[in-house]
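Field: COMPLEX_INPUT
Field: COMPONENT_COUNT = four
Field: RESIDUE_TOTAL = 1064
Field: MODE = joint
Values follow.
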Amino acid sequence: MFLSSAEAIERLVPQGTGLLAVGGMHMHNNPMELVRELVRRRRGVRRLLTSPSASLAADLLIGAGLVDEVATAYIGFEHLGLAPAYRRAAESAAINVVELCEAAIVHGLYAGAGGLPFIALPAGLELSDVSSANPEHFRTLTDPFTGDRVLVAAPLRPNVSLIHAIAADERGNVFFAGAHFTDRLMAMAAKTVIVQVERMAEAGEIAAQPAESVLPGFLVTAVVVAPRGCLPTASHGAYGYDEPGLRAYLKLARTAEGFTEYVQVNGMAPSEVTA
Amino acid sequence: MFLSSAEAIERLVPQGTGLLAVGGMHMHNNPMELVRELVRRRRGVRRLLTSPSASLAADLLIGAGLVDEVATAYIGFEHLGLAPAYRRAAESAAINVVELCEAAIVHGLYAGAGGLPFIALPAGLELSDVSSANPEHFRTLTDPFTGDRVLVAAPLRPNVSLIHAIAADERGNVFFAGAHFTDRLMAMAAKTVIVQVERMAEAGEIAAQPAESVLPGFLVTAVVVAPRGCLPTASHGAYGYDEPGLRAYLKLARTAEGFTEYVQVNGMAPSEVTA
Amino acid sequence: MSTAVEVEYSTGELMAAVMARHLRPGEVAIMGAVSALPQAACRLAQLTSAPGLWFIAGGSGAVNPHLDPLVASSCDERLLDADAVMTLPDVILVEGRGDLIDIFFAGGLQIDAHGNCNLGPIGPWRHPTLRGPGGVGLPFVSRAGRVVIYSMSHDRRTFVEHVDFVSGPGFAAGSVALHGGGPALIVTPLCTMDFDSDTHLARLATLHPGVTLAQVLESTGFAPIVPPKLETTPVPTPDQLAILRGLDPTGLLRGGA
Amino acid sequence: MSTAVEVEYSTGELMAAVMARHLRPGEVAIMGAVSALPQAACRLAQLTSAPGLWFIAGGSGAVNPHLDPLVASSCDERLLDADAVMTLPDVILVEGRGDLIDIFFAGGLQIDAHGNCNLGPIGPWRHPTLRGPGGVGLPFVSRAGRVVIYSMSHDRRTFVEHVDFVSGPGFAAGSVALHGGGPALIVTPLCTMDFDSDTHLARLATLHPGVTLAQVLESTGFAPIVPPKLETTPVPTPDQLAILRGLDPTGLLRGGA
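Field: COMPLEX_OUTPUT
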């Protein structure tokens, strides 16, 4: 159950994973230690699924050339700026973008978690270009109750989900602090779930948590204890984001050379791989 | 926002309400004070929607002859016995039973809450007779992604939901203690929401609750403060169920005459209506 | 020379011990309404032969409730004294995913030779002779790894050739395949049955101590397959009984929960 | 004789005051990424002209965050200091229901004459000249009561005749009806616009103090309807500014959030 980040990625994330989901939202609760290990080991991913709003985790994986396709509704850094590696990859068509919306991601994960074959979306969502841009992910049906035309989205069933939580107990029950965004759904929908945590839970601590802040251990494949492992993104309940650290990334990652420098300076060169 | 149970039912639950949802689960958290007021005022309901497992609230409304149809997956009293009024009404075909399953109720409420036009159900659910028994509520479609046959259920959008929570603040934010079953979804899917609570919240108490135990006030139409108002069912966080009280009901309600006696003895005769 | 001590046990305790032995370490089990018996079986299994077993007390959302003490209602707040708790909507997601639940404990007012269970109408659907409470989550048994059916009644009203209404689908007579493994075990006050892998029909497995084959056949409304040799159901050991009684000071398993 | 005091205010503060005046008591508003400005507007409205207003800080799930202080990121943990908090999946349900959200604050790298917003690709979809971050929940504007569009840039790159990609649908040229009320107000550093009820085209409403009509037309890539008489946008009152500065000690609205 408890592995180092090196062991977890090596054993549980096969090269060429079909659908890899990475949790957190904006520059909060990105499971960066796990993501850095993916970069170190150069684990390629056929499709990356982000939460409705991704930032550093996604930009780093894309910049490292590890992602063939990204299914996302937002990759950026809010007030700090656009996502440099994502921009470069998308603008050079080096990556295929499966443009989704919040509804397609969240309802799609709900469908994946619950074994629903697909999910019908609220009327009006078909008016955006999201569904036209990615006909592979969306279909139009006739509502069998009303006869209306209805947009439906595919379920999202990650092969692997990487998420962050505040603490875990010895059986892999984990709990979240602050907001947990789409992280529980990402875990519930995935075959393999690796949870990066700040610390071990104290005795009785998980039992004292409310139902919805907890992910029971039978949904968790492995736990990686990585204190301060979300930095430079925030970990709700533990620390805020490191704005200078994020700005340093954004500055360097403006160029491919700068990105490589960032990867090397931050311990993500392949030479940093440990057994 | 704050009303007596008499005012809330009089003003907010029209005679012949199309779909009335009543929360709680088994003999826990049934909003009995609101239900008793419905009986007192003889408010008829075209269709009653129960949580996946209902007990006294549903049996009382059905026994009082106030329900044309009931959409449910279970009405009973677990180890205490079957539901006497429901049995009598169903066995005499005095009521139409829309037999649902847990999945159709919970996913149906999710669809209602989120504006989804219908909900596709996991493969295998079509093997029970639930869908065949109620073709009005279910349809079969072709999955546009796989070509498989798929069972879909109608969304559930209650006109009115009656639920119970532990406490409310002055703006109608409420929070739950213990398990809250399908009560939050019932509220999120309904046009009009009446929440029966044990007490007023203390200053700052709602803000201190985790996200998922709270229902924000913009989803709440009215709050009725009714201490010990779930009895003889339990109120999680406040008191357990009154087993002798439930057994007394089950004994009396075995006959129509006994049921009438129970209604009268327990202050639900029309003469008990207050302005 | 054996000096076996005669230990008294109730039918409920015997059934709990049988069900516990069916569970394997690390599996995930789930149960619904009126489930003190399978809950006790799971806790017993965790403390004996199936360490690391997970069990979800359905309606309450409790994961591994500590059963300190065992309670009668499946939504009792005391169940939330547990290793973790899920919301009911999340439990429904977990039931639906189809690869998470290894064991689904099911029951019925009617149970048939193919393991179909009925908790709904008995007789005509629209005008039943007995309106059962309803099946709650029983349609999800079609997606579980194995289904364990238990009943505190073993008579011809309960065990029928064909259920009048399928709440929880067993093996179908026709060609429709279940998405999960289907019914695996039936536990009653008289015996245990499993299912023949070719015909998918219920087959007697063990008779409880003191119960005769004739008694079972007379009490069963279908003709179970009878294997050449029928074992006697092992009785609960003193250790098992000590654990069960520790969980159950009020005697839910002794009064017939 | 007037003795008006000249009060200095930033563009952000002016825009927040304009947006606040658009909100009515008891309404429910929602906003997404990079939303310090509409959050400040909502809090200002709650404390002045729209008591009982609800606002949901999208990604965080915070309902009526106290903004003590205003923060830059829409998912900052400090937003959870609020009247109540929802989960993100529940926020998505609320957005989808279609009769709960009165005001949706939207933005775009491109905004067009019909109020369509683009936060996705600029240029060809598969090979964009500028890959925007993405629209997150913007497709839901189609189901909101009114859409308030805001932008800190007012230039011809931002305000275009037709967006290259519709993230948040405005009024369509064709016959497709929005399920909600559609775009109602645009607030920029230069002016405010509303929408003509017949043509559904953007129409200049007010010019900010010191801004000329020519300046707006030159900075706008479409031709807004120009009404015969253009009012000047009211400047924030000293009370409004005091409230805004109380919320915003670090000057997010003064440095340009």
